[in-house]
Write a structure and sequence with these properties.
Structural class of chain A: mainly alpha
Largest sheet of chain B: 4 strands, antiparallel
Radius of gyration of chain A: 29 Å
Radius of gyration of chain B: 29 Å
Number of helices of chain B: 13
Number of strands of chain A: 0
Strand order of the largest sheet of chain B: 1-2-3-8
Strand content of chain B: 5-15%
Number of helices of chain A: 15
Helix content of chain B: 55-70%
Distance between the termini of chain A: 54 Å
Oligomer: heterodimer
Number of strands of chain B: 8
Chain lengths: ~375, ~400
């Protein structure tokens, strides 16, 4: 044990600047080494993916934008001229945009559906953005007054010229079917979910059979039923509107799916909540309305949004029973002789896909956002 | 005791109150009302329907099933002519639905599992590509995708002469996928029979290996051995019998192919659309299932000295399957139901043939729709029952 004594003492007065990581680990090369080329298998996969991207993306990009025709008034614009390749025919979409949005709604009345769509977007923003004031009132307004006003503005009567539903089309029909479906299926779904969990045997059986039958058959057969069987079920002379029949079919079908989503929420409520409600002397309906359903519905908001996404996509099926929703209107225009070129089918379908995608993707992001937000109360 | 005295009141009024507020009695009364309402509602509908059918002069009944159908079907897995009955048309449609669903489930499962695992890959490019695929196709209606494949891809393909030649003499053109047709020779059934026999042997080997491992601790490469038995034995028998299976290659004659086997453009488009669409949902299910297995399970397996491939096969996948199977079942059911969209592009499935052509010709809306719905219901219930059975076998048994 020898002590080393020195006169000089070294005390560092400042921190060392952190050094840059070795070149092989930092920056893009390091990132690529870790994420793309970490093992022989990884290298093979990366090269294969790069090859696919180089093979696919440039031609797609060319077709969509560079070789695309943006302006024009008829098929001449999109016809390939001497050896020149022609990509997407955006001129077609441009010329038909009003029809894709409103169908054959009379041109001088199109401000009506436009107004409804704007009101719908504003109302939805009010209800869906958590920071908005008076959201509860907003929800009630959107569920009660808004549908009635919408019906009056779209259909007419009381001073507005009547526009028969056979003239409705395009995005308008897509939105009408989807929104009516969700609004009508929510109460139906709640009732069926409560029925399925009821202690009354007959009510339970009726609910189970109803849910399983609608869930076990394709929507297209339900729509067929609504379009060919429903008229037979009604007294002679009562004639239902075609759109209304489709709406009934969609609502019954979605109601069954909604019931299962809500049942999940009901099952997630701890038994103590039911017992607590009972101990306060609340009746069945009081305890459901005040204690159980508010909690259950809050849990399943993401599930409800997911049902809404599938419903929104499924609305395209009304095309099969002869209603012209967005997809139906676009598809109908493929046979328009003044536009018929090989590129209008892909262009129209890609346009429809883009519209549907924007709606569905934003809804799925919203549902994920709500899931994270609602999770806070349960985080430990 | 005052409390008791107040309630124990024998006056008629309180007896009525006791009945009115009794939960059991109220429940029965309520159910009775619902029953009466349903019966009246059904009677009303049946009455209306009877009146309407009478007015339209359509007798209710299933006799029309034996009448001559008189329309043609583009894809006939069983004998069918214009003179066949509607019942035969129904069978053709049903078989086409089953063919489409089974093939669709097969491809969607494979693509779905590959994509689901790819989304969790450490390879950035692969994971991103899988994400883009899932998020794009999942958010676009299936009907639109089917129309896209049919109208925008397959129908603009070049004719047979300029079609794309793929390996194994497969040709992709606007006539669909043309591929070699297998011709079964003498004794091929024997080869087919060796498959279940080999499977039984493999099963016996697996049992023996497990017993030996429990008894002695020595492991046996069961997976590789079974694979070898199940694939190898039929191949040996096949070769020993002089390869009794030849292929008839499709040949270009004039403007079309002669010979070989053709997958019609409608079926090709349906398979592309329905498999790629359902696969996005299966991929998400698989990803969620794998993520649901806690990391501790893999770490524990590594600490026991298991290799990554063993960990995946023996520890992670069996636990993930428990989470995956119930939603996977729903996806299979959805795929089967979605196959009904075939109507939109002219693939002759049950809905197109029966609820389309037969309904239009005979006008028997109620019977036709009821039969169609019943078929899908039964298919759904069978699939659900099979998957529930499988699910019960792999479910976590907590002791």
């Amino acid at each position: 044990m020898s002590r080393i004594e020195t006169d000089t003492v070294f005390v560092r007065r400042d921190f060392l600047e952190p050094e840059a990581p070795p070149p092989s680990l930092g920056g893009f090369p390091g990132w690529a080494r870790r994420n793309l080329f970490s093992s022989p298998v990884n290298i093979t996969v990366s090269l294969l993916m790069l090859f696919l991207l180089v093979w696919w993306l440039p031609p797609l990009f060319r077709w969509l934008f560079i070789d695309a025709v943006w302006t024009g008034t008829d098929r001449e614009a999109c016809l390939p001229k001497d050896g020149e390749t022609v990509g997407a025919c955006w001129a077609f979409v441009n010329a038909k945009l009003a029809q894709f949005t409103f169908g054959s709604y009379p041109a001088d009345q199109r401000w009506r559906p436009a107004l409804v769509m704007i009101a719908f977007v504003l109302g939805l923003a009010w209800v869906a953005i958590p920071k908005m004031p008076r959201r509860r009132e907003g929800i009630w307004l959107m569920l009660t007054a808004f549908p009635i006003l919408t019906f009056w503005v779209l259909y007419g009567g009381l001073g507005l010229p009547v526009v028969e539903t056979s003239n409705w089309g395009g995005l308008l029909v897509t939105l009408v079917v989807a929104v009516t479906g969700i609004v009508a299926s929510l109460p139906l779904g709640i009732l069926l979910a409560l029925g399925r969990r009821s202690k009354l045997p007959f009510i339970k059986i009726v609910s189970v059979v109803f849910i399983e039958v609608w869930r076990g058959v394709p929507l297209i057969t339900v729509l067929f039923m609504a379009s060919v069987m429903l008229p037979l079920f009604l007294p002679t002379g009562v004639n239902f509107d075609k759109l209304l029949r489709a709406l009934i079919g969609v609502a019954l079908f979605t109601g069954a799916y909604m019931a299962e989503t809500i049942r999940g929420g009901l099952q997630a409520i701890p038994k103590g909540q039911y017992e607590g409600a009972a101990s306060l002397g609340l009746s069945y309906w009081q305890s459901m309305r005040l204690i159980i359903l508010p909690q259950a519905l809050k849990i399943v908001i993401p599930g409800i949004v997911n049902s809404f996404i599938s419903l929104f996509k499924d609305t395209s099926l009304v095309m099969i029973i002869g209603l012209y929703d967005l997809l139906g209107s676009i598809q109908r225009n493929f046979s328009d002789a003044s536009w018929s070129t090989p590129s209008i089918a892909p262009t129209g379908l890609i346009f429809a896909a883009a519209v549907f995608w924007v709606f569905c993707f934003s809804m799925s992001r919203y549902s994920m956002y709500m899931e994270r937000k609602l999770n806070t109360g349960r985080k430990r | 005791m005052t409390l008791r005295d107040e309630t124990a009141d024998d006056s008629p009024r309180s007896w009525v109150r006791a009945v009115l507020y009794d939960a059991t009695i109220r429940g029965w009364v309520f159910q009775g009302l619902v029953l009466v309402f349903l019966v009246l509602f059904a009677a009303w509908i049946i009455h209306n329907t009877a009146v309407n059918l009478h007015a339209a002069n359509i007798p209710f009944g299933f006799d029309f099933l034996n009448m001559r159908a008189g329309f043609d079907i583009s894809q006939k897995p069983i004998a069918y002519t214009l003179d066949s009955s509607h019942l035969q048309a129904f069978k053709v449609g049903l078989l086409n639905t089953i063919i489409l669903s089974v093939l669709g489930i097969f491809f969607a499962t494979i693509i779905g599992f590959v994509v689901g695992v790819s989304r969790l890959s450490s390879n950035w490019l692969l994971a991103r590509a899988a994400t883009v695929y899932v998020e794009t196709l999942r958010n676009v209606p299936l009907l639109l995708q089917l129309l896209f494949w049919y109208k925008a891809v397959l129908s603009v393909l070049p004719g047979p002469r300029q079609g794309y030649m793929l390996p194994l003499s497969i040709n992709l053109s606007n006539r669909g996928l043309t591929m070699p047709r297998p011709i079964i020779g003498e004794g091929f059934e024997i080869v087919l029979w060796t498959v279940p026999v080999a499977a039984a042997v493999a099963w016996a080997v697996a049992r023996w290996a497990k017993r030996r491992q429990v008894a002695t601790g020595q492991s046996f490469p069961v997976f590789r051995a079974s694979l070898g038995i199940i694939i190898g034995v039929p191949i040996v028998v096949f070769l020993a019998l002089g390869a009794p299976l030849t292929f008839e290659l499709p040949e270009l004659k004039g403007f079309n192919f002669v010979g070989g086997m053709v997958v019609h453009p409608e079926l090709t488009a349906m398979l592309f659309g329905i498999s790629l669409y359902t696969a996005t949902f299966i991929a998400e299910t698989v990803r969620a299932g794998i993520l649901a297995v806690s990391a501790g399970q893999s770490e524990a397996a590594f600490s026991l000295g298991l290799r990554p491939s063993q960990t995946m096969r023996l520890i992670v996948v069996p636990q993930a399957m428990r989470v995956i199977i119930p939603p996977l079942t729903s996806q299979y059911l959805n795929l089967t139901k979605n196959s009904s969209l075939a109507l939109a592009i002219g693939y002759p499935d049950l809905v197109a043939v029966f609820a389309g052509s037969t309904l239009n010709i005979t006008g028997h809306a109620i019977e036709v729709i009821a039969i169609t719905m019943a078929v899908y219901l039964v298919l759904s219930l069978i699939t659900a029952a099979l998957m529930n059975w499988f699910n019960a076998r792999v479910a976590l048994v907590e002791r």
